[in-house]
Structure formats: structure tokens, C-alpha cells
Amino acid sequence: MNTGKSLLCFFAGVAAGAVAALFMAPDSGANTRAKIRQGAAGVAGRAKAKVAEGLDMIEEVLEEE
């Protein structure tokens, strides 16, 4: 239970730091939003690939049975 709370606090701190960095960024709002969009697209692409890998692994296990 303590580990979960610690991780939650850690990620809350990371999120707060990211928000603060965005507000203090010297780049224009349009450029910052474009960078965020590109980063989100990259994360989404990697997540889709991992889900596909997981589904393939499940399919292989089910075929073996």
C-alpha cells in the first residue's frame, strides 16, 4: 500500500513539474502545443504497438493449447 502511495506522489510531482515547465517555456504557445501533439502521437503509437504485441502473445498461447 505504501508503494502505491509513493508512486502516486511521484507521478503527481512529475505532472506538476511538467505543467510548470510548460508555463515557463520560452517557446510560443503554438510551438509548444505542436510539440505536445507530436509527443502524444509518439506515445500513442508505441502503446498501440505494445497492445498488438500483447495480443499476438495471447493468440500464440491460445493456439498452443
What do these coordinates show?
The protein has helices spanning 2-24, 29-64. The chain has 65 residues and is mainly alpha-helical. It has one domain (2-64). The longest helix has 36 residues, at 29-64. The two termini are 36 Å apart. 0% of the residues are buried.
Helix content: over 70%
**Main sheet makeup:** none
Number of helices: 2
Query: Could you list the spans in which at least 5 consecutive residues all have pLDDT below 50?
Result: none
DSSP E strands, number: 0
What gyration radius follows from the Cα positions, in whole Å? 18 Å
Q: What is the straight-line distance between the termini?
A: 36 Å
Number of structural domains? 1
Structure, briefly:
The protein is mostly helical. It has helices at 2-24, 29-64.
Highlighted features:
65 residues; mainly alpha; 2 helices
Layout of SSEs?
Layout: H1 2-24, H2 29-64
